[in-house]
Amino acid sequence: MHEMALMESLVEVLSEEAKKHNIRQIHKVKLIVGQLTHALPDALQFAFSVLRQYPPFSPEADLQIEERETRGRCQSCSAEFAVEDNYLFICPQCGGLAVDIIQGRELQIDFFEGD
Ligand SMILES: [Zn+2]
Q1: Is 49 a member of any domain?
Q2: Could you tell me the residue range of the domain that residue 19 belongs to?
Q3: Per-residue pLDDT in tens (0 to 9) along the chain, 115 residues
């Protein structure tokens, strides 16, 4: 379950940010999680429910997760499209195989709240 490791590193970042901003207790965290991270929201929630037992979190801290689908942009015709299959990047407009991933790799803290 790599979600626990992911959440541990996010918690580390959150702890440092909280210290920087003189926040003693974090009540709410919002994450943006791209499909390509293969991080399951339920597993992230579970990991968070374990880790929020320790400072600087409130034991009832809330975790919100915004999932982002995988999106690609064709290098030939610049079409942007949602990628249904995580491993198949083909432009639906021209069939091109040179596709840049423009969304889906995110794993970031959108914001957090505390006092
Ligand atoms: Zn194309």
Answers
A1: yes
A2: 2-70+103-114
A3: 699 999 999 999 999 999 999 999 999 999 999 999 999 999 999 999 999 999 999 999 999 999 999 999 999 999 999 997 666 789 999 999 999 999 999 999 999 999 9
Please check if 94 is assigned to a binding site. Answer: yes
b/e sequence 66-87, b meaning 16+ C-beta within 10 Å? eebebbbbbeeeeeebebeeee
CATH number at residue 41: 3.30.2320.50
- Give 93 Cα–ligand 1 centroid separation in angstroms: 5
2 is in an annotated binding site: yes
Answer whether residue 78 is part of any domain: no
* Residue 112 alpha carbon to ligand 1 centre in Å: 39
- Does residue 85 fall inside a structural domain? no
Q: How many domains does the chain have?
A: 1
Q: Is residue 77 part of a domain?
A: no
- Chain centroid to CA 61: how far? 18
User: CA-to-CA distance for 83 and 4, rounded, in angstroms?
Assistant: 26
